[in-house]
Amino acid sequence: MEDLNIPKDIEEELLVLAHYNRMHFYTHFWNISKEHQSLHEKYLAEAAELVKPDSEWQDEKYYELGNKSQESGYIAIVFAVMFIEGAVYNFGAIYLGDSYIRNNLDRLSLLSKISVIMRMVTGKDIDSDGQAYEHLKKLLRYRNALAHAKSSPIPTARELMSIQEKASKEYYEAIESVKKAIEYLNDESKKLNDDAYFPGIFGHF
Q1: What gap in Å lies between CA 80 and CA 178, rounded to an integer?
Q2: Do 119 and 93 contact (CB within 8 A), yes or no?
Q3: What does the DSSP assignment read for 109-169?
Q4: In the predicted model, is pLDDT for residue 129 greater than 80?
Q5: What is the pLDDT of residues 161-176, one digit of tens each?
């Protein structure tokens, strides 16, 4: 930079910008997740308009929309976690360096990685009983179930109803947690630093 005769204060500002503007593609993951969150809601709304309250069975289009909604929900969940994982690595690498993250933290679980990085960067930790971790745990639990799906014995009719109710509850909790995990995690991480300009985990995107 000296060959270009750049003033010292401008040079320092450019170096800071270079430090924060890292090459990444995690925002694409979040864009994919948001797109499918919208599709999930769209298909649900369209299916709701087709419901026949007095009929035990619905038209084929109703079930088709239900399947499309669920598929979009799966994509939204998986790509949201991919975004969070990428953002946490990016945040840690900015403050602690790539080599430190790769050599010391890369094999930790996402929750442990967040905890260690925040303690090292701010000297404090995100509340493990707070809403950020509550929603992130729900999201991770469902993503893991999708990514590591396992077969099971064929249930009885009564067992099947119970299984379906439980699966539906967990699915909608995970969908709800897609946005909330990111919102609460960023808000709580920003509060750990007294600097008003501290960006939080997702502030660099």
Answers
A1: 6
A2: no
A3: -HHHHHHHHHHHHHS----TTSHHHHHHHHHHHHHHHHHT----PPPPHHHHHHHHHHHHH
A4: yes
A5: 898 899 999 999 999 9
